[in-house]
Amino acid sequence: MSMKSGEIAVLSADMFDTGNDFFWIGSPGCIPDKYPLLEQPHRQLFYMLLCIESAEGSAVIDGVTILLDHPKIICVKPGSICSIHINRNASGHVICFTEGFFSLRYNNNVLLNFSFLNKENVHEVRLNAAKAAEWSHITRFMEQEFHHRQKGAGNVLRSYLNILLCNLERLFNPVEGTERKNNKEEKLRQFKLLLDEHFIAHKTPSFYAGQLNITTNYLNKLCREYNGLSSGALIRKRITLEARRLLHYTGLSVAEVAKELGFESASYFVTFFGKNTGTTPESFRKKQQ
User: Fold this and answer.
1) 148: burial class by Cβ within 10 Å (0-12, 13-18, 19+)?
2) Do the beta carbons of residue 32 and residue 41 sit within 8 Å?
């Protein structure tokens, strides 16, 4: 649930004890009693959307204090140092999800398209009355879906989440689509597209750097600048995502998944999966059932 990194706790999504490590939705008013770790400065390994309808208190994200005094959406990104102080009668919803949860259905590059998730110092978007009512309506449906846990609930929750993120993008940056991305961002976008196309056959950064007519070192620099990860780490992340999809959505054996992903042997795939997820393919598959 939590580890120590110096004096800052590191929290993962399993702190909510919901039977999964990927998604949780609940009331912000339950934080003081049920999740007091969120009140202390911490880093979290998941995205959080704090959807405030009516509340008192504040959220501190990377040293920036945000008052919980109006209807607003506060976004906490993985790796940020955050603490949340909120009253027990607060209304609204807290939505926590991992990138892996969202990407299990949607392409893993989709989160890159949401500019508020990729800018450095964007934490809140205020809502007018009409937007606040719209968010309240959708998040209540999400909460019902989460608690009823009917067949296909995960896919329904991902769909709702995509709707919320698209709406949030419109609020944050309605003219994004008309702006030209800079050359660095365009190179990174091209890398992600090439990665989606070739990750099974080509698992080394040098191939992608060659396709982009840049050096491997420059590709690494771009990836670290915009994603905080090396190009090699992003390649491994993409392979791992596809492995999770195949294990979750198909009946292929582990050996067949390994072959599908271009691994020379099942044992090499099992080792790779373990290093990148902390679990075995069999354990991951059982946890999804």
Assistant:
1) exposed
2) no
3-state secondary structure of 203: coil
User: If phi over 0 gives left and psi between -120 and 50 gives alpha, with beta otherwise, what is residue 72?
Assistant: beta
Label the pairing between strands 8-11 and 42-44.
Answer: parallel
Residue 273 has a CB neighbour count (10 Å cut-off) of 26
CA 64, 52, 147, 142 torsion: positive or negative? negative
As a whole number of angstroms, the distance between CA 257 and CA 34 comes to 40
* Cα 254 off chain centre by: 26
- Bridge partner list, 43: 10, 81
Tell me how far apart the alpha carbons of residues 231 and 140 are, in angstroms, rounded to a whole number.
Answer: 39
Report the distance separating Cα 226 and Cα 185, nearest Å: 8
As a whole number of angstroms, the distance between CA 261 and CA 202 comes to: 10
Phi, psi of 26 (to 5 degrees): -165, -175
287 vs 60: CA distance, rounded Å: 34
Summary count for the chain: helices (H), strands (E): 12, 11
Q: Which secondary structure element, helix H or strand E, spans residue 143, and what is its range? A: helix 129-148
pLDDT in tens, the chain (289 residues): 444 334 578 898 888 876 667 899 999 999 999 999 999 988 888 999 999 999 999 999 888 899 998 999 999 988 787 899 999 999 999 999 998 888 887 765 577 678 777 665 668 889 999 999 999 999 999 999 999 988 889 999 999 999 999 998 888 776 654 444 578 888 888 898 899 889 999 999 999 999 999 999 999 999 998 888 899 999 999 999 889 888 987 889 999 999 999 999 999 999 999 999 999 999 998 886 6
Q: What pTM does this model have?
A: 0.68
Compute φ and ψ for 27, nearest 5 degrees.
Answer: -85, 140
